[in-house]
């Protein structure tokens, strides 16, 4: 559009968001980090639940191996995924934002269930904690969940059914909790 004063409004044509998401959903997750560098719009779309839902609908989901490692000389553990590229197997750091990143407590229990990883209990400053955190593997965001009924560390976590995560035993302070002390 041309104005009377000679100024010209220039707008780049944009694809509808649904079309962009449809295209991105078909791209391997191993390429998502590169694609997020294309533009702010692409970066914001790469980590939306809508993209994951479309990938599921199209049958394009991929299993990843998540690792939480402390690599010296860094004192704090970091989260990684194992690269899916067949000829380039390497650890890829999980994207994190400082405001939502959670470091798992020492001696915490972890279990993968559904679309994420639950981190339960552990020791913070030598004391048992009852905290429960959830890493959403679709968006790499953290949530704090309701605390457990008992603070504990070094417990055993697992899935007994498709809808429940169970935690059994461990230590609360200085005493060992027997196998009958569990939570769901």
From TrEMBL:
Organism the protein comes from: Brassica napus (Rape)
All residue ranges annotated as the F-box domain in the record: 14-52
Top-level taxon: Eukaryota
Protein's name according to its UniProt entry: BnaC05g03940D protein
Residues forming coiled coils: none
SMART domains documented for this protein: Kelch (SM00612)
SUPFAM superfamilies: Kelch motif (SSF117281)
A Pfam short name: Kelch_1
């Amino acid at each position: 559009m041309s104005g009377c004063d000679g100024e010209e409004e220039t707008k780049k044509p944009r694809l509808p968001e649904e079309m962009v998401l449809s295209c991105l959903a078909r791209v391997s997750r191993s390429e998502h980090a590169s694609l997020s560098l294309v533009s702010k719009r692409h970066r914001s779309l790469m980590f939306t639940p809508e993209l994951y839902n479309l990938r599921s609908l199209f049958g394009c989901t991929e299993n990843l191996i998540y690792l939480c490692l402390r690599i010296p000389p860094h004192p704090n553990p970091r989260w990684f995924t194992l690269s899916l590229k067949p000829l380039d197997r390497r650890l890829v750091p999980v994207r994190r934002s400082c405001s939502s990143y959670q470091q798992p407590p020492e001696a915490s229990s972890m279990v993968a269930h559904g679309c994420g990883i639950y981190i339960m209990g552990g020791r913070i400053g030598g004391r048992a904690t009852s905290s429960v955190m959830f890493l959403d593997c679709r968006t790499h965001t953290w949530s704090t969940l309701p605390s457990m009924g008992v603070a504990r560390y070094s417990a055993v976590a697992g899935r007994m059914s498709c809808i429940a995560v169970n935690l059994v035993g461990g230590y609360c302070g200085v005493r060992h909790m027997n196998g009958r002390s569990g939570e769901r």
